[in-house]
Amino acid sequence: MKKAVILFNLGGPDNLDNVEPFLFNLFNDSAILNLPLFLRYPLAKIISKKRTPVAKDIYREIGGSSPILKTTQDQANSLEKSLNTKQKDSNYRVFITMRCWHPRASETVKLVKDFNPSEIILLPLYPQYSAATSGSSLSEWEGIADKNDLKINTKTICCYSQDTKFIKAHSNLIKDKIKGLQNFKLIFSAHGLPEKNIKKGDPYQWQVEQSVKKIMEEINEKSSVDYILSYQSRVGPIKWIGPSTEDIIIKNSNLKKHLVIVPIAFVSEHSETLVELDIKYEKLAKKNGCENYTRIEALGINEDFIDCLSDLILYKEDHKFTDSLYSPQNKCPSNYIKCPCLS
Length: 343
Known about the structure:
Blueprint: E1 2-9, H1 19-27, H2 37-60, H3 68-86, E2 91-98, H4 105-115, E3 119-124, H5 131-147, E4 154-157, H6 164-178, E5 184-191, H7 195-199, H8 204-219, E6 227-232, H9 245-254, E7 258-263, H10 271-287, E8 293-295, H11 303-314, E9 320-322, E10 325-327
Parallel strand pairs: 1-2, 1-3, 3-4, 4-10, 5-6, 5-7, 7-8
Antiparallel strand pairs: 9-10
């Protein structure tokens, strides 16, 4: 029995010439700029052109391109191997779809049609659901699949922010790094989101908070660790959820803390981990008196994380499905109406 798994990620430019078109794709997404197309398209052109010089400098810091495609392909290969090892009577093939760069959904749909599976499982590489990330990717896939007449039984795993093995993957990495450390501050850093998105019912912040809560329950079994959750990558003048990672870094650097940074919402290394966390924020920390700065790696092909993903796929029947949607046992509160599980 052939089954296709679609891994969704943001994507990134594969060379400096493609930075501007990548940014255009990002800002032309209605989940990012919620405007009619006739307004969004020209505005996305203006924003992407304006931001390109700075973005190019960022990608120059990591060799002139984003590593996210290779990282995601490694995750896809590891997941495919895990699935076919655990369930030998099925033939699983894992495909990649990027929201803002290649391979796009329009390319992947054609590959899936050629594979002709009996079932498709959609799996965003965003543990915590947001309409701007998972929601946008899943919506694009659904529209393109319809246009290409891809009429195959499809199930969606929309989020896994409290999954036991996802929590275990983070907890074990953190425990290894903080063992023996003194006077340190554990800083969970997640990508920010405009506050208005949360007020409109986006569950992202709540889900990130639950991830951190579960991780700390495991870490603090034998000791009490000083930690905080913060948000990075804020852009524009509107109010974003906080506190900001920059502010937290400055405050704790002034206190001479050893900073230990955890990318809680990123499972793949890319510019926001390799440049923002590793270069920009480390410089900020040292400028403000920090002598020791440690960044815990993104989960990548961590064995527990790949087990998390494969188990979600293989044992999805153990969970509840409503209209082919995976519904976590720990659902979001009812006010987070953007969560698909509450629809």
